[in-house]
Amino acid sequence: MTLPTYKHKGKTVWVKINPKDDLLGVPPVFLTNPETYTPRVDPESGRIEEWGLVDPQQGDDPNDVPEMPYEYIRMFAKQTLYGFGGDKESPEVQWCKLRAALKEKKLKADPAAVKARQAQDYILKIRFEDLQDKKGDKFCWRVVKVSGGMKLSVFSDKVLLPAMGWCRNYHAYTFIDRSDGGLFGPKESNYIDLSHLHCHGQYFIDDDKYTLAHILVDEKSELGYNYDLGDFWRHNITVEKILPAEESNGKVELLSGSGACPPEDGSLPERWQKTYDKLMNSNLRGPEIQKKVKDALNYKDEPEVKSKSWRYDPHHFDLARAKTRLQEALASRASDKTGPKMFMMGGGMGGIGGFPGMGGLSANLANLNLGGSPFPVPSGSQATVQKEKGRSSRMVEHIRVGDEPKGICGSCGRPDDKLLRCGRCRAIWYCGRECQRSHWKAHKQVCVASGDDVD
């Protein structure tokens, strides 16, 4: 694959540059050939991060720009020259898009091998990277079994987020292929924190197009997962075992775990580490911190949190409750990322927020047809509004109400080309009659005939 080249001030480059761009603060890597670039290991994490890029250290920049991160130096130039009324894409985005095209070509090079891995089950360990105990151990993790045929987008929405304890359809996220820094994320989405993408990789490949088997080629493979591009909570996913196809059934299982998920919007990771240290050194377990956690969007609706005696313990992990969250997510509609959860204050948007749950399949979660979404509502979805108790704000989210796109079995989580859809509500798929019959007791509570509104 030979990439086209351009001239800028007498030099050969692989991206189109606005003649008025002085390139102040641009790392030299974005002026090199993306095809011959060798991904670099990040010295801080010890792993390959987004596109294998490493932030330029002071003195590495040929323009010798001191101290201030290049993302902020470049922000004004991007907005004026490549933003409103300017060229469509900055040199940085163009370069990353070229790397993405090369990555996608590689992913499609051996479809037979990918198909074979998609028939296998993976046992994965998801470890939260931004919290450690006094011994230096990263103690918050989950071990799950999933099919290699599961899409990255589904894995995030219906497995990783509920298993860890984060909210669904609330914040943006990215996956990183640790072999080369290939970046994947939610295309056609309206997550507010995508405004921080310029600090975290510039551009990503659609995670709805590729499965775990595309990335995790063997038991040495690893995936990075960054959640909330504002606060930026880092996770690392390793392969514990890949089961032979004859021993694989495609079912999703949460096998074990340790540690409690941090609260949504709690603080930046480094601040949360200090909060954790304070909790561990406090006899009263920090009453202000406890209130903050209880009010957090991923905790306030949890059954045990409603008890007056409940106290947040960073080392506590309730396997049974986590399995319930996971099962609820599997049985729900896929999140509609065109309208993520957010707070609306009066007539306008006052911040972002969310609530965990079934993603709109249950009548108890939202009232339909009240409008108020700041984003266009696509066909097959509706805007939902939920009033916040004791607050003037309301929660807005898009949920799917039409025919549910084929995804995974709503009972066991198996992805399969031969999935059968519930003929009454058309909102859930099953891998066979056995799963449909075993799940009917739970599903009949929310099964509404297709075409009926939920109210």
Automatic annotation (TrEMBL):
PROSITE patterns: ZF_MYND_1, ZF_MYND_2. The keyword Zinc applies. Keywords: Metal-binding, Zinc, Zinc-finger. Transmembrane segments: none annotated. GO terms for molecular function: zinc ion binding. It holds the Pfam family zf-MYND. Gene3D superfamilies: 6.10.140.2220, MM3350-like (3.10.290.30). SUPFAM superfamilies: HIT/MYND zinc finger-like, MM3350-like. The keyword Transmembrane does not apply. InterPro entries: MM3350-like_sf, Plasmid_pRiA4b_Orf3-like, Znf_MYND. Residues 409-447 form the MYND-type domain. PANTHER family: LEXA REPRESSOR-RELATED, TNPR PROTEIN. This is MYND-type domain-containing protein. It comes from Ascobolus immersus RN42. The lineage of its organism: Eukaryota, Fungi, Dikarya, Ascomycota, Pezizomycotina.
